[in-house]
Automatic annotation (TrEMBL):
PANTHER family: PHOSPHATIDATE PHOSPHATASE APP1 (PTHR28208). It holds the Pfam family APP1_cat. It comes from the Bacteria. This is Phosphatidate phosphatase APP1.
Amino acid sequence: MALSDLVRNIEGYVNRRNIVRRREQGWLPRITPYMGYGNTHQLRVLARAVMAPPPEQRLPSDVLAKIGLTAENQTAARAAFWDAVAKADAAALEAQRGWNQFFTTQVGFVRVEVEIGGRTYTTRTDRQGYVDLVIENHSLEPGIHDVVLTPAAGEPATAQVTILSPEVRRGIVSDIDDTILVTWLPRAALASWNSFVKHTNSRQPVPHMAQFYRALREGSEETPVFYLSTGAWNTYDTLRAFMKKSGFPVGPMLMTDWGPTPTGLFRSGQEHKKTQLRNLMIMFPQIEWVLIGDDGQHDPLIYDEVAREHPSRVRAIALRELGPVEQVLAHGSTDPAETNRRESDIENAGVPVVRGRDGLLLMSAWKRRLGTLPLSETRL
């Protein structure tokens, strides 16, 4: 038996034991919704089922009576109390240690009903508890729609899907780590510190990157932004909170699951990014993309390869250049992890590549290289 198979079996055994124990404690499957996306013919619904404690329903009347509340005021008191609890829980979630996000008990192969646009579809989670459902001929108009997912024996949850109009001609794909969020990946020790130990609300955005993204979308707010990362889905909620707090545009996140696979102990981050990029190009054949990443990992090579395969589908590549200290922290050398490809074939073939240490320098490089900044004003 391969080592990866052994680790997967151990992981599965521990998770099954945890499910049994949680059920005995009254826990039920809960859906963690992720933002999905689609075109006017096809959409992708993303979510995960994990075990969670049942929600508190109400405060006992005798408790409220003891503090002097009359019957007619008790309903309002309960509502105010649980509203305060919810706000406290939200603040605690935002400030929790990063490692708390990774201790979940996923529910594999559970039946889930998906309701959208007046229709109901039935699916099951995969081994790791994920829902990844593609729906054809959904008849939804462009815009943001709610999807209700209900697991067997669990409470319903609402996800969102954004349906892009066939008229949308430009889009952005952005890396997360060291592109919009300072994490110093992939060096294991510092990655672990930033992901597992630091409080989730203490993470810092890359300077002025949100301003760069807003400038790209000025006058064309329908321009979609997809965040593509090799990070774990467990960090989804805190990343969404980080993006909202830092002023980044909202968009679907395409992440992955850490852990063993049938072919190895770890998933290939490069293949994940390539696959997701190709899927976007297939689903949205009319969109020309701006690819944004950094030179501390494999983004230059990944984007170059995709652009060489589809040169007419890539408007430009923007790379955030890590400083010497960041490069050392990222991979142990002052040089970029991959060649910066200043003389790459794809640049010679007409796909511009702009570089800068932060958002302001990228904006300046973009204006010098392409002449104008908002995507609404650039020509196809």
